[in-house]
Specification:
By secondary structure, this protein is α/β, with parallel strands linked by helices. It is about 55% helix and about 10% strand. The protein binds adenosine-5'-diphosphate and magnesium ion.
Length: about 450
C-alpha cells in the first residue's frame, strides 16, 4: 500500500517536471512551439534519460529535427541535471535524420494541403500539386514549381509527398533537397557506391527535388541529374521540382536540362495578396495554439508583405512576448511586440548576416561554409548562427544549411555558446551589439 502511494507520488512528480519542461521549451523555442505539444506525454524518466511519447511518427520526427536542443536545454534548466531526450511514437524511437538516407522522407507536420491557404497567388500551383498526388506520372510530368523564397514551395512538396503516401502506401518515394542530392552523389563517388546511388534514384515512383537552382555550376551533378531525370521520365515515373526561378532563368543551367524541366507543367507562385496573408496568419496562429483577434491578423498582414516566413517570424515574436496564457492577444499588445521587433531588424536575411559578419571579421563567406575549424573561422561562424537565430525566423536546419550544410545540433550548440559568452565576455558582447546595428541598417 505504502509502496503504491510512493510510486504514485513519483509518477506525479515526474509528470509535473515534464509539464514544466514543455512550458520552458515554449519559452526557449517559440518558433517551433505547436499546439500539439500539450499532447506529449512522458513515457519514461530515469537514469538521465527522458523518453517522450509523441502523437505520431511525424511529430516525433519534427521534434527530433527541430527541437532536441531546446528540450535538452529546458530539461537541464528545470531539473538541474544533464538529461538526454528521446522522442518516440507507436513504440518506436526516432533516429537522427542524417542516419536515414534510404528511409522514408521525414515530413513536416504543418506542411499539409489542409494547412495551405489558397489564394490567387498560388491557386494554380496548389491545384497542380493535388492533381499530381492523385495521378502520379500521368497528368503533369514533370511538375515544376517556382517562386521567390518563403512562398510555400517546400510546403507544397511535403503535401504532395504526404498525399501520395496516403493514396499509394507502397509507392517508392524519394524527396530531398537538391543540395542533398548533390552531396549524396558526391559521397557515392567517394565511397564507390555509385551503382547503388543510381539504382536508388532511378527506380522510384515519385522523385521530388527541392531547390534545383542549386545545380547551377555543378556540372557533374547536372549530368547525373539529367540521366536520373530521363530514366524516370521514360518510365513515366513522376518528377516534381522546385526552384527560385523559372527553368530558363536559372543561370548556367544547360539548355538540355531546362528544356526537360519545361516539358511538363511549369507553375509559378507569386507573393500573397493582403487577404491571403491575413488568412495565413490566422491559420499559423491556430497551429501554434495562439488566439489572435482579427485586427491583429490584419495588422501583421499589413506589416509584412513579401515573405510568408516573415509573417511567421512576427507570430513567433508575438508568441514569445505573450507566452501561452490562452487569452486572446489584442491589438495594443501586438503593436508593442512587433514594434520592438522592427527595431531589431525586420527583413534581415541570413545572407545579410553572413555579409556583415564576414566583412567585420575579415574572413570569406566560403570559409564559414567550409570545414575549417580554426578559431578565427569558428567564432564568426558561430556568431552568424547565433545572429541568424535571433534576427530571422529560420529553423536551425535552414541556418545550418546556409553555413555549409551543418546539422541542427551544431547550430543549437553555437547559439548556446555565443549566448553564454554574451553574458560573460564583454568583448563578444560589444561585438554582437555592433554587428546587430550594422545588420539592421
Ligand atoms: P519556400 O520553399 O517557397 O521558400 P516554404 O514552403 O518553406 O517556402 O514556406 C515558408 C513558410 O510559409 C512555411 O512555414 C509555409 O508553411 C508557409 N506558407 C507558405 N505559403 C503558405 C500558404 N499558402 N498557406 C500557409 N502557409 C504557407
Ligand atoms: Mg523551400
Amino acid at each position: 500500500m505504502y509502496e503504491q502511494t510512493v510510486r504514485k507520488k513519483l509518477a506525479q512528480d515526474a509528470k509535473e517536471i515534464f509539464e514544466a519542461i514543455v512550458e520552458r521549451v515554449k519559452v526557449l523555442d517559440p518558433a517551433n512551439s505547436r499546439r500539439w505539444f500539450d499532447d506529449l506525454v512522458i513515457k519514461n524518466f530515469g537514469g538521465g534519460l527522458l523518453e517522450i511519447n509523441c502523437p505520431d511518427m511525424e511529430s516525433a520526427g519534427f521534434l527530433q529535427d527541430n527541437c532536441i536542443g531546446s528540450f535538452t536545454h529546458a530539461a537541464q534548466q528545470i531539473t538541474g541535471h544533464l538529461v538526454s531526450i528521446k522522442f518516440s511514437a507507436d513504440g518506436k524511437v526516432v533516429k537522427s535524420k542524417l542516419s536515414e538516407i534510404t528511409a522514408e522522407p521525414r515530413l513536416h507536420p504543418d506542411y499539409t494541403f489542409d494547412n495551405f491557404v489558397v489564394g490567387p497567388c498560388n491557386r494554380l500551383a496548389h491545384a497542380s500539386c493535388i492533381a499530381v498526388s492523385n495521378s502520379l506520372g500521368t497528368t503533369y510530368n514533370p511538375l515544376f514549381i517556382y517562386g521567390s523564397a518563403g512562398l510555400g514551395k517546400t510546403h507544397l512538396l511535403h503535401a504532395i509527398c504526404r498525399e501520395t503516401r496516403n493514396n499509394l502506401p507502397k509507392a517508392k518515394i524519394q524527396f530531398l533537397s537538391c543540395e542533398e542530392f548533390v552531396n549524396r552523389f558526391i559521397s557515392a563517388i567517394e565511397t564507390g557506391s555509385l551503382a547503388e546511388f543510381k539504382s536508388l534514384y532511378r527506380t522510384v515512383d515519385l522523385l521530388i527535388i527541392d531547390d534545383v537552382q542549386f545545380l547551377r555550376e555543378r556540372e557533374q551533378s547536372q549530368e547525373e541529374f539529367f540521366h536520373t531525370f530521363n530514366a524516370l521520365y521514360d518510365n513515366r515515373r513522376q518528377i516534381v521540382l522546385s526552384a527560385d526561378e523559372a527553368p530558363g532563368q536559372i543561370p548556367s543551367l544547360p539548355e538540355r536540362l531546362t528544356s526537360r524541366f519545361r516539358c511538363g507543367l511549369v507553375t509559378r507562385i507569386d507573393a500573397p495578396t493582403y487577404e491571403t496573408r491575413v488568412a495565413i496568419v490566422q491559420k499559423k496562429a491556430r497551429l501554434r495554439g495562439m488566439k489572435i483577434s482579427d485586427e491583429v491578423a490584419e495588422c501583421i498582414a499589413g506589416m509584412v508583405k513579401a515573405n510568408i516566413r516573415e509573417l511567421e517570424g512576427a507570430l513567433t515574436t508575438l508568441y514569445a512576448m505573450t507566452g501561452t496564457t490562452g487569452e486572446e492577444i489584442g491589438l495594443d499588445i501586438a503593436k508593442k511586440a512587433l514594434g520592438e521587433r522592427e527595431t531589431t531588424g525586420k527583413n534581415v536575411s541570413i545572407t545579410d548576416i553572413i555579409k556583415v559578419v564576414t566583412a567585420y571579421y575579415d574572413v570569406r563567406p566560403a570559409d564559414l561554409q567550409s570545414k575549417k575549424r580554426s578559431q578565427s573561422i569558428t567564432t564568426p561562424r558561430q556568431i552568424c548562427m547565433y545572429l541568424a537565430r535571433k534576427l530571422t525566423s529560420h529553423s536551425l536546419e535552414e541556418i545550418g544549411g546556409h553555413l555549409g550544410g551543418r546539422d541542427h545540433t551544431t547550430v543549437m550548440h553555437a547559439c548556446d555558446k555565443i549566448g553564454g559568452l554574451q553574458q560573460t565576455d564583454d568583448k563578444i558582447q560589444s561585438q554582437l551589439v555592433e554587428l546587430t546595428k550594422r545588420i539592421s541598417r
